[in-house]
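Supplementary notes for students who missed Thursday's class. We covered one full example, reproduced here. Read the sequence, then the structure, then the short commentary at the end.
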Amino acid sequence: MSISVLILTLNEERNIEACLDSISWCDDVVALDSFSADRTATLASARGARVIQREFDNYAAHRNYGLNEIQYKNKWVLMLDADERVTTALADEMRAAVRDSSAQVGLFLVRRRDHLFGRWIRRSSGYPTWFGRLARVGHVRVERPINEEYHTEGAVLSLQNHLDHFPFNKGFSEWFRKHDRYSTMEAELRLGSRGQRPPARDLLNKDPLRRRKAQKAWAYQLPARPVFMFLGLYVIRGGFLEGRAGLTFCLLRAWYELMIDLKVRELLRREQGLPI
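Structure (token representation):
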């Protein structure tokens, strides 16, 4: 059984060709492009992808559009970002999984290997984190505007092989710009969900998506959270064993969490008419 692929793109000329090369086995690729100003659409089209353009609003709405408003040749669609690569082992596993799965299965989860300075930063990145990626068309909805949540009425299974992820491939400046946007969106969500958090029992839930959601919500209550994030990744998880790449990523991750906390404080003070 074949699988279609949906790639979200915005100014991804540095990434799109390598991403498409990793899915050369696919007979139905769609690039959902947010009106890139570079050669992304041209390069994707030249490699045989269908390019559909839509103005970006938020990640949940964008992915829901991709899942529900686009027609695919196949019953399953793999959702990719342009800075991700599908390994041969994962491609083989996915094809076998959708071929052998029952009609009750709606979603498969995948882990990523994050890379920096030419190495997999397994410890520093907090591996493993599970993402909903391989969806049965018409059976999955996406919620939460940033760091999305995937929901299905069907069963959710996990795949054992990995996506390779190169989050810094467009340069550190782009990483900072992107995470400036992300931190603003996260701060606004935190402010809008004050007093709401999952029950403590979900911290150990067997469902990795529910467990991650609970752990994240409870972690936001910690004082000096960015410091704990750095120590957790660099010391407890062993990021110090990954050399310069490990130190760099742990510092950047702590900085991102600090940006979120500062922007929450800013929004709260503005609500009260106070200066920053």
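Commentary. The two ends are 56 Å apart (CA to CA). The longest helix spans residues 243-271. If anything here is unclear, bring it to office hours.
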